[in-house]
């Protein structure tokens, strides 16, 4: 099982992923860094950018450009099995919007949304559900020692 995530300099998404205690790889923050290419099915964890812009009647761009670059590589996109998105409930209708966009464009389920760094309950629910439904999602199950 693999988690691929993007986290901005705030570190909110990284903090959430770290608490999951599952194998994870980070999409680089800077364009000058080598792009990430994965070789096994994964769940993407992604923050939402530009919260609240739809309320202001502006064009939302909720998916970070680094994630777009990562998913534009067919080698990565075809291994995506599900998406989880972070956000801020202050974003209103745009809360977790990146997950909606990625799920629709890539044809994968949007399985969870969490606020900022996620609560202990968020972490427990996501971890349990990923481990319990790994095969249903097309993920490689973890060995018993990691569960």
CATH architecture: 3-Layer(aba) Sandwich
Q: Please give the domain count.
A: 1
Output mean pLDDT.
Answer: 91
Helix percentage? 25-40%
* SS class: alpha/beta
Using the coordinates shown, work out and report the CATH topology: Rossmann fold
In CATH, what is the class?
Alpha Beta
Strand content: 15-25%
Radius of gyration over C-alpha positions, nearest whole angstrom: 15 Å
Task: Provide an overview of this structure.
The chain has helices spanning 12-20, 65-72, 74-77, 97-106, 120-132, 134-137, and strands at 3-5, 24-26, 42-46, 80-87, 110-115. The protein has 147 residues and is an alpha/beta fold. It has a single domain (2-30, 37-137), classed as Flavodoxin domain (Rossmann fold, 3-Layer(aba) Sandwich), CATH 3.40.50.360. The chain has a five-stranded parallel beta sheet, sandwiched between helices.
Ordered list of secondary-structure elements with their pairings:
Blueprint: E1 3-5, H1 12-20, E2 24-26, E3 42-46, H2 65-72, H3 74-77, E4 80-87, H4 97-106, E5 110-115, H5 120-132, H6 134-137
Helix pairs in contact: 1-5
Organism: Corynebacterium otitidis ATCC 51513
Pfam families: Flavodoxin_NdrI (PF07972)
Protein name: Protein NrdI
